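Regression check, acetoacetyl-coenzyme A case 240:
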Amino acid sequence: MARTALVTGGSRGIGAAISKALKAEGYNVAATYAGNDEAASKFTKETGIKTYKWNVADYDESAAGIAKVEEEVGPIDVVVANAGITRDAPFHKMTPDQWKDVIDTNLTGVFNTVHPVWPGMRERGFGRIVVISSINGQKGQFAQVNYAATKAGDLGIIKSLAQEGAGKGITANAVCPGYIATEMVMAVPEKVRESIIGQIPAGRLGEPEEIARCVAFLASDDSGFINGSTISANGAQFFV
Ligand code: CAA
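Current build output:
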């Protein structure tokens, strides 16, 4: 029977490419989105992938949404915690709200997404958790104290979950994308973006499909011995 995959933030950007790649691999895919109804319904129309609206920063909403997905699509075997936001500002200008919004969505959002599916994965003896971190969680980034903290936090989450899940057939891994051609990166001022591209030895931004390929690999049944690892896909911009 086909496995079921949940992709948070799965109707746009990197998440949309992940949803499509997993569908192409034969998974039943459910994609969540936070607010953009129009983009989500267009995505469903184009791909046939079901979308569900909830705020990953809210535990109760996440748990209720996940219960609905499991009822309508099936027990979740693969979770891709991808939903994320930026609220960039130099630290001296960063507001407590900019800090809190990013922590709540990007970091607590991972807890809220994985925690409700974890008991079912333990019971069934199979699970794949893939968290979308970032190059900026590995190296830090000017104007991203909040975002870099969450993306570094993701790496602590997967390394800990890996140890807890390994005996139960569950793996937890991260993908650290570099700068990818999505709306998030396009929102960076053009001059800054050009200077970033200048720091990428590949000489270009990455494509969302190049991240989706990493996720599909980590999600597969035969990736069971890869656990607590990080795949960096950044065009040689940074090595850990
Ligand atoms: N390194 C060093 N200095 C930088 C810098 C950088 N990366 N980016 C901006 N600065 C400097 C500017 O040159 C400018 O310096 P001067 O004042 O000496 O001219 C100063 O910072 C800008 O200061 P401001 O007070 O005017 O800044 P601002 O309040 O207008 O904020 C900004 C501007 C938010 C920092 C904007 O430049 C920006 O968005 N920078 C990009 C940050 C970034 O790379 N974010 C990543 C987004 S993509 C992503 O997050 C996806 C992923 O996972 C990779």
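Comparison notes: The longest helix spans residues 145-165. The pocket of acetoacetyl-coenzyme A is lined by residues 86, 88-90, 93, 134-136, 141-144, 147, 179, 184-185, 188-189, 192 (CB under 6 Å). No diff flagged against the previous build.
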